[in-house]
Write a structure and sequence with these properties.
The complex is a heterodimer of chains A (546) and B (309). Chain A is of the alpha/beta class and 546 residues long. Helix content of chain A is 38%, strand content 23%. With 309 residues, chain B is mainly alpha-helical. Chain B contains twelve helices and no strands. In chain B, helix 6 packs across helix 7, helix 9 packs parallel to helix 10 and helix 9 runs antiparallel to helix 11. Chain B starts with a helix and ends with a helix. The chains are: A alpha/beta (546), B mainly alpha (309). Chains A and B meet through helix 1, helix 2, helix 4, strand 16 and helix 14 of A and helix 1, helix 8 and helix 9 of B. Chain B: Belongs to the binding-protein-dependent transport system permease family.
Chain lengths: 546, 309
């Protein structure tokens, strides 16, 4: 196959409309979508969930769920050929050779029982007639180009032996091995740590510069857009609201929605805050949580792995302490120890002057209500089979409140978190993610706690919703004089809400201090790395300067 | 690779990563029982067959039967006639009557074993799954029980405590319990990690309430399905035991006993063996088909896929 080497767009979408099945809340998943991707151009399609950005990408690949979604109008021209009219055989041919796609979760997108090398090789086996030796050479070469360490050895490894970032590199290698003219990346860095994300973005950029691949990059994160986009397409409710060169969109957004999205990205510039002087609500002393290392008869030996080592934290009432770290840093372990969802191995957790680290289930009960938690995933933290009211009232009634009193309290709290009291009679699936997170906050508040722990409580939410939930958390903290322990991987979010921040890495707190000081003057090497990796770190300044 | 990509895309969509229609209702809501039957015609037939078998077992005296134990040596081994719809056996007993009354035994055994095994297994499984230190102890006991061949255990129990319907049921329940326990435990182990269960723990919900409110509802769908399989295998085991002479006493008309007796004169009157055999096969097949349909219907992921085809 020869490529028509020209300056025309490699991908051109014209007036695309994809119909939703009958009975959906709107007629089209996407409608009237038109844009081009030129060779060597990175086009970012940005939007919140439900905007139709993924449907657009899946249409290009011909991967729309059969029987549910179908392109009704328009054309998708891949180097002049309409893929919507292509036969299944032709589509299969195009995928991998002319267009390729990478996904959000590299852990599930790779086959766990095939070696890395074989998975990349599979593409070559299907689409080329090269000999095994030639194929291997090509695989090694592309792995090298993806900066995978020691490709010869890696060739025979399995996906679980690789880190998340390496797995995503392997996915990109498999996508790029036949030099497609367009790479579609569907939230490829969302599941990755910030430092890894920065590396993958760097890699995609390099690819586009060296190989002149057009990139269609789907993301919800304007920070990432600022980092890599040449051109930006903003989508909402299945339609394009604005598109243009990246610089122009950021400097001069024409539509309110775009402006709101850009403004919703929390700035890395923390506002200055008064230090909180309230009484200490919770304190940990040399908290350790280890896993493994138990002998056959249950005698404890040295733990094989320490998820948290010697963690010392203090949170005062009316104060927000952020624990920031990447996955595996032990930040959630610390939170779960304090709520006593897991038992700490050693150390003390002091709440109201009592060490609760070693208390039995029975002795712990009175302290349970003092520490409450809001979980990460609003879709799983509410029992789908119980009404919202039952969930919110459960805790208070466990502690002896009558049904009427608990109901009255729940109704009051619903108002407080910005929902109507009749929400109590409905089931969780009738609410959006943001609303569910409000319900989860109401459930925690129904216990009248001293300490509220938010474990990645906003990371599953769209930016605009994220902002509202952050504001709500801040508001309830002030209103109830709570000690708020805010666990996050996102430095930008931490900058906005935390009074103090503790940075964790591999189970240890490497640096702790007032937010502003820590951001402006990071002492530890790792803190500096994290700050440098945060996508769109210039964005805050740009908006602030405006 | 392209195959992988397509597959991934499917799973990505199934997981709801493609953020299109709100993840509210799983699949299309089937219009109650009638809708389910329409979608699974085979299951409808199976349900009808089971209903006929169940009803005729209950109303056995009303469906053209005589006393199934009445001997009539003069009319031995007769073929089908107006008086004896399916002929008579080697003692001159009416085969149709014995078949219908035999259904009673099978139905009772199937239902009783399924109910007992599920209730006992559910209780053990719930606590085993949730209380960490209990888990290894109970599960090793269960492993031990599973290691004993079910029929052997049943023969031993029956020979110790004598043959009666109750001992037969007890003997079949014991080896079925570990299977239910393992199923419940596996569900509990995954549900206990759900954030909403953790949330309930952190608001101080006591263990029994926690199990009842948050964990049990998740166990019910797979248990209903498992119960149908338990019932089917219990009916078969009962027949095997009776056939071997270790089950219901020979005086009781049961399908297993009928097969055992029919075996002796198979060359002369083959149908006396085949009738109960066919009845048993049809019943068990119907129960299993119903179980499969229930599984498809109750597992939202499967239901969606089956519904699309």
């Amino acid at each position: 196959m020869t490529t028509s080497e020209g300056n025309g767009p490699v991908l051109s979408i014209r007036d695309l409309a994809v119909a939703l099945p009958a009975g959906a809340d709107r007629r089209y998943a996407v409608e009237g979508v038109s844009f081009d991707v030129g060779p060597g151009e990175i086009v970012c399609v940005v939007g919140e969930s439900g905007s139709g950005k993924s449907v657009t990408a899946f249409s290009v690949m011909g991967l729309l769920a059969k029987g549910e979604l179908a392109a009704e109008r328009g054309e998708i021209l891949l180097e002049g050929e309409d893929v919507l009219k292509a036969s299944p055989e032709r589509l299969r041919d195009l995928r991998g050779t002319r267009m390729a796609m990478i996904f959000q979760e590299p852990a599930t997108a790779l086959n766990p029982v095939m070696t890395i090398g074989d998975q990349i090789d599979e593409v070559l086996q299907i689409h080329t007639t090269l000999s095994p030796a030639e194929r291997r050479e090509k695989v090694i070469a592309i792995m090298e180009a993806m900066h995978l360490p020691d490709p010869q050895a890696l060739y025979d490894r399995y996906p679980h032996q690789l880190s998340g970032g390496q797995r995503q590199r392997v996915m990109i290698a498999a996508a790029m091995v036949l030099d497609p003219v367009i790479l579609i990346a569907d939230e490829p860095t969302t599941a990755l740590d910030v430092t890894t994300q920065a590396q993958i973005l760097q890699l995609i950029k390099e690819m586009q510069e060296r190989r002149r691949t057009g990139v269609l990059f789907i993301t919800h994160d304007f920070g990432v857009v600022a980092e890599i986009a040449d051109k930006v397409v903003v989508m909402r409710h299945g339609a394009i609201v604005e598109q243009g060169p990246a610089a122009e969109i950021f400097a001069n957004p024409k539509v309110d929605y775009t402006r709101m999205l850009i403004a919703s990205v929390p700035s890395l510039e923390p506002p200055s805050r008064e230090p909180a002087m309230g009484p200490v609500a919770v304190e940990t002393h040399d908290l350790v949580k280890g896993y493994g290392g138990k002998s056959w008869l249950g005698r404890a030996t040295q733990p094989a792995f320490l998820a948290a080592k010697d963690v010392n934290l203090v949170v005062r009432r009316g104060e927000t302490l952020g624990i920031v770290g990447e996955s595996g840093s032990g930040k959630s372990t610390v939170a779960r120890c304090i709520v006593r969802l897991v038992d700490p191995t050693s150390g003390a957790i002091e709440i109201a002057g009592t060490d609760i680290a070693g208390l039995s289930t029975r002795a712990l009960r009175p302290y349970r209500r003092r520490v409450q938690m809001v979980f990460q995933d609003p879709y799983r933290s509410l029992n789908p089979r119980r009404t919202v009211g039952a969930s919110v009232m459960e805790g208070a009634m466990n502690f002896g409140l009558s049904h009427e009193d608990a109901l009255a309290r729940a109704q009051r709290l619903m108002g407080l978190v910005g929902l109507s009291p009749d929400a109590l009679d409905r089931y969780p699936h009738q609410f959006s993610g943001g609303q569910r997170q409000r319900i989860a906050i109401a459930r925690a508040l129904a216990m009248e706690p001293d300490v509220l722990i938010a474990d990645e409580a906003v990371s599953a939410l769209d930016v605009s919703v994220q902002k509202q939930v952050l504001e709500l958390l801040d508001q309830v903290k002030r209103e109830f004089d709570l000690a708020l322990l805010f666990i996050t991987h996102d430095l930008r979010v931490a900058a906005q809400i935390c009074d103090r921040i503790a940075v964790m890495r591999r189970g240890e707190v490497v640096e702790e201090g007032p937010t502003r000081e820590l951001f402006l003057n990071p002492r530890h090497e790792y803190t500096r790395t994290l700050l440098a990796a945060a996508p769109g770190r210039h964005l805050g300044h740009a908006v602030a300067a405006e | 690779m392209t195959a992988i990509v397509e597959k991934r895309a499917e799973t990505a969509v199934a997981r709801g990563d493609a953020p299109e229609p709100a993840p509210a209702a799983p699949a299309a809501p089937p219009a109650g029982f009638a809708g389910t039957l329409k979608r699974y015609p085979l299951a409808a037939i199976a349900a009808l067959v089971l209903a006929i078998i169940g009803l005729s077992a209950i109303f056995a005296p009303l469906v053209g039967t005589t006393d199934p134990t009445a001997l009539n040596p003069a009319a031995r081994l007769q073929g089908a006639s107006a008086a004896h719809w399916l002929g008579t056996d080697h003692l001159g007993r009416d085969v149709w009557s014995r078949l219908v009354y035999g259904a009673r035994v099978s139905v009772v055994v199937g239902l009783a074993v399924a109910a007992l095994a599920v209730v006992v297994g559910l209780v053990i499984g719930l606590f085993t799954g949730f209380i960490r230190w209990l888990d290894p102890i109970v599960m090793r006991v269960m492993d031990g029980l599973m290691a004993i061949p079910g029929i052997l255990l049943a023969i031993a129990l029956v020979s110790v405590s004598g043959a009666s319907l109750v001992t037969v049921i007890a003997a079949i329940v014991v080896p079925e319990v570990p299977r239910v326990v393992r199923l419940v435990r596996s569900v509990v182990l995954s549900v206990r990690e759900e954030p909403y269960v953790e949330a309930a723990v952190s608001v101080g919900t006591p263990l029994p309430k926690l199990l009842w409110r948050h964990v049990l509802p998740n166990c019910v769908p797979p248990l209903i399905v498992q119960a149908t399989y338990v019932a089917a295998s219990a009916m078969l085991t009962e027949a095997i035991l009776s056939f071997l002479g270790a089950g219901t006493p020979p005086i009781v008309p049961s399908w297993g006993n009928m097969v055992a007796e029919g075996r002796l004169l198979f060359q002369i009157a083959p149908m006396n063996l085949l009738y109960p055999g066919i009845a048993l096969a049809i019943t068990i097949l119907a129960v299993n088909i119903l179980g499969d349909a229930l599984r498809d219907r109750l597992d939202p992921k499967l239901a969606k896929r089956v519904g699309q085809r």
